[in-house]
Amino acid sequence: MLRPRQPVRNSNRHYLRTDRSALHSGDPEKSLLGVGHLKRQGRGFKGHITVRHRGGGVKKKMRMIDWKREKHVVPGVVKRVEYDPTRSANIALIFYKDGEKRYIVAPEGLEIGQEIVAGPKAEVRVGNALPLKNIPIGLPIHNIETRVGKGAQLARGAGVAATVQSKEGDFVTIALPSRELRLINGECFATIGQVGNLDWKNRKLGKAGRKRLMGIRPTVRGVAQHPNSHPHGGGEGRSGIGMPYPKTPWGKHALGTKTRNKKKPTNKYIVRDRRVK
Predict the structure, then answer these.
(1) CATH number at residue 36
(2) What is the DSSP letter of 5?
(3) Could you tell me if residue 63 is inside a domain?
(4) Is 194:200 a contact under the CB 8 Å cutoff?
(5) Minimal CB count within 10 Å: which of 27, 75, 184, 200?
(6) Ramachandran angles phi, psi of 224, nearest 5°
(7) Is position 184 within any domain?
């Protein structure tokens, strides 16, 4: 659910935020906090900027999420649902019967006090993790592994869900949120249900300052830049880009050019590309 602010100033007039009244208001579980969220400011391992328009932002503490769900057969109880500043989805704190605590991404419909479990023989219920071969066709799933034991990599954002389309041999066909159809090994684990916090995509920040708090810096149009900085730059007055097609700052085609490697080994697992209409 979205909550507006009282428009006592212009920055609050169009501000819409997700309702967090039902979430845990105290501190996170200290034993599950990482060393800190490393700010790379858009730079790669060489120190060069690989993602533009990144920098600044408030400090965040990384929550360690259980992506593998490797505690098979051991039941756990949902203690609370929390806000996570480093991701769009909310997270749930699980207390397992053996005394261990872990965070998982909170699916829609997960209730406090509910018991969840992971394993091949787990019940098909929201929050439980099972191998893809044991999940019925047509059921929404999230936190999907691409390789056995690697941990969830697909369908992890707020409000998203994939669907089991069909099963053939050792592989299961999954319809991803991007409309891509992909073959995944049936032994890979996935969690039942849709990721919660569905209204996250409908929120409105209201002012530029909130974007800066998120660590996102302004984006300047290419035509407004110096010709040394961008191919679209330069010219007297408003002269346009001066070329038949737009380019990136590095001179590559900006529209219509496929960037995925044609020889990538995992291409054979893509049944339908996400760009096909």
Answers:
(1) 2.40.50.140
(2) P
(3) yes
(4) no
(5) 27
(6) -90, 0
(7) yes
Alpha carbon of residue 41 to chain centroid: 19
* Beta strand ranges found along the chain (DSSP E): 2-4, 16-18, 76-82, 91-96, 101-105, 115-116, 129-131, 140-142, 144-145, 152-154, 162-168, 171-175, 181-185, 189-192, 270-272
Confidence (pTM): 0.89
236/7 Cα distance (integer angstroms): 42
Strand ranges in 106-209 using DSSP code E only, listed in sequence order: 115-116, 129-131, 140-142, 144-145, 152-154, 162-168, 171-175, 181-185, 189-192
* Residue 241 belongs to a domain: no
pLDDT, position 258 = 84
Cβ contacts of residue 179 below 8 Å, gap of 6+? 272, 274
| Predicted local confidence at residue 260, as pLDDT | 87
Tokens 């592994």 correspond to what residue? 145
Q: Is residue 210 part of a domain?
A: no
Query: What residues make up the domain containing 41?
Result: 2-201+266-272
Q: How many domains does the chain have?
A: 1
**Consecutive 10-residue averages of pLDDT for the chain (277 residues):** 89 91 94 82 92 93 94 96 95 96 96 96 96 96 96 97 96 96 97 96 94 95 95 92 93 89 94 88
Closest CA to 90 of 199, 164, 242: 199
Residue closest to 74 by CA, chosen among 37, 135, 115: 115
Confidence (pLDDT) at 211: 94
Q: Sort residue 210 into left (φ over 0), alpha (ψ -120 to 50) or beta.
A: alpha
